[in-house]
Amino acid sequence: MFRKILIANRGEIAVRIIRACREMGIQSVAVYSEADRDSLHTLLADEAICIGPAPSTKSYLNMEQILAATVAMGAEAIHPGFGFLSENAKFAELCAKCNIAFIGPSAEIIHRMGNKSEARKTMMEAGVPVVPGSKTPVYTVEEARKMAEEIGYPVMIKASSGGGGKGMRISRGPEDFDANFQNAQMESIKGFSDDTMYLERYVERPRHIEFQILADKYGNVVHLGERECSIQRRNQKVIEESPSPFVKDETRKKMLKVAVEACKRIGYYSAGTLEFMMDKDQNFYFLEMNTRLQVEHPVTEECTGVDLVRDMITVAAGNPLPYKQEDIKFSGAAIECRIYAEDPENNFMPSPGVITVREAPEGRNLRLDSAAYAGFEVSLHYDPMIAKLCCWGRTRESAISNMARALREYKILGIKTTIPFHQRVLKNAAFLEGKYDTTFIDTRFDKEDLKRRQNTDPTVAVIAATVRHYEREKEAASRATTLPVVGESLWKYYGKLQMTANNY
């Protein structure tokens, strides 16, 4: 087993990996940019090292700096988390050349499956149904335009190295195609240092279903069930749940067989996810394979009891999986809400700033993966996700009920967050009935209701008033030349706040 692991990431996923290392008795090394000097992952790790300025291209995407830091700190392995370099075949190859274990699949597999064009080709060869689309990568808007005419509109424009909804645009006709292609390509270059694109036919009102796979280097492959990821904004997931309320048992079995057989065929190892698009008639088409840990992995962990991060490390160290398929037991249902520093009233625009108040939910069947704390500054330089709240229940209904309670307790001030949005989704009839698709936010969600809710929440108003009063009192005290006489204590304010929240 490894003695020391460097985490080539930031935020909540870096914290998640650090904690897994600690539980396994492995020392952890955090890397951080100048903007993340006071981030939670930097403070929690056994050791930390700065790798460059705030822009990700000069820090978290800087391969040479990360490898140099790994060698300097004496780490034997790198866990890339998700995003950044997690699906970069060149980085995995450089790790191997430097005799550093990459906690993920081989560079060859990452290239084949992480590159969307290659993945489509591989899956077609394996007989897996795919959405009609380009068979070869495209680089220019001219050749892409010709290909779009052949495929037929509407088309989905995708970055071959993309992930997290980045580098994706829907074009419904030639009039908006050029602008959409160029914008998606620029986003891909900025986020992944890759201008390779591909196109596929856009399926109207689809469901987004994915299957979690875990495999070792000895040919053992197990599945950990599916996740429903259809509630999205700007093609990025915001709520996930398992099992899917839409997929029929017969269809589930077919998709699981396809996913497992595909992984065996390509010799896949480590954690991976096969993503599918499904239409209203349960027809499914391969979308892509993520050769990394998924953001939404807690949903699966809560329903199976499997620690995906621990097992990724175990496999990377050359050990076989500690269980077989028949050992995996599925229990209950889980739902995850991604908490973003975004303003849902303003088209989910980023809301950077300093978190002044953070009251985290507590209780049974609740899990909070977060790197946020009171006083932490949310930067514009990185993805605005600040936490993942996951709740489990014996049934889907109880999981939703647990989540509603947890969201009610979750208070963050100083910035806008998506917490009010999640609260309204959990009361939406279409969501409660499981009758939603990837167009949910645009077609089934009442945005005006969200605004009304935001503007009339008495709990938030009380917290805000308390903070303002306390800050004014603190400011006045700092200006005094003698020892100030402080009025009512913050503890009393807190007590009043809690009473109000409990009665709300």
Keywords:
alpha+beta; Rossmann fold; Dna Ligase, domain 1; D-amino Acid Aminotransferase, Chain A, domain 1; eight-stranded antiparallel sheet; about 40% helix
Structure in words:
By secondary structure, the chain is an alpha+beta fold. The chain has five domains: 4-103, 3-Layer(aba) Sandwich (Rossmann fold); 132-201, ATP-grasp fold, A domain (Dna Ligase, domain 1), CATH 3.30.1490; 204-331, ATP-grasp fold, B domain (D-amino Acid Aminotransferase, Chain A, domain 1, 2-Layer Sandwich), CATH 3.30.470.20; 339-456, ATP-grasp fold, B domain (D-amino Acid Aminotransferase, Chain A, domain 1, 2-Layer Sandwich); 458-503, no CATH class. It contains 18 helices and 22 strands. The chain has helices at residues 11-23, 40-44, 63-73, 89-97, 107-114, 116-125, 141-151, 174-192, 249-266, 297-304, 308-316, 396-409, 419-425, 429-432, 440-443, 447-456, 458-479, 490-503; strands spanning 4-7, 27-33, 47-52, 77-79, 101-102, 155-159, 168-171, 197-201, 207-215, 221-233, 236-242, 270-278, 284-290, 333-340, 342-343, 349-350, 353-354, 357-359, 366-370, 377-378, 385-393, 411-413. It has an eight-stranded antiparallel β-sheet. Strands 3-2-1-4-5 form a five-stranded parallel β-sheet. Helix 5 (107-114) packs across helix 6 and helix 7 (141-151) packs across helix 8 (174-192). The N and C termini lie far apart (51 Å). The model is unreliable at 479-489 and 499-504 (pLDDT under 50).
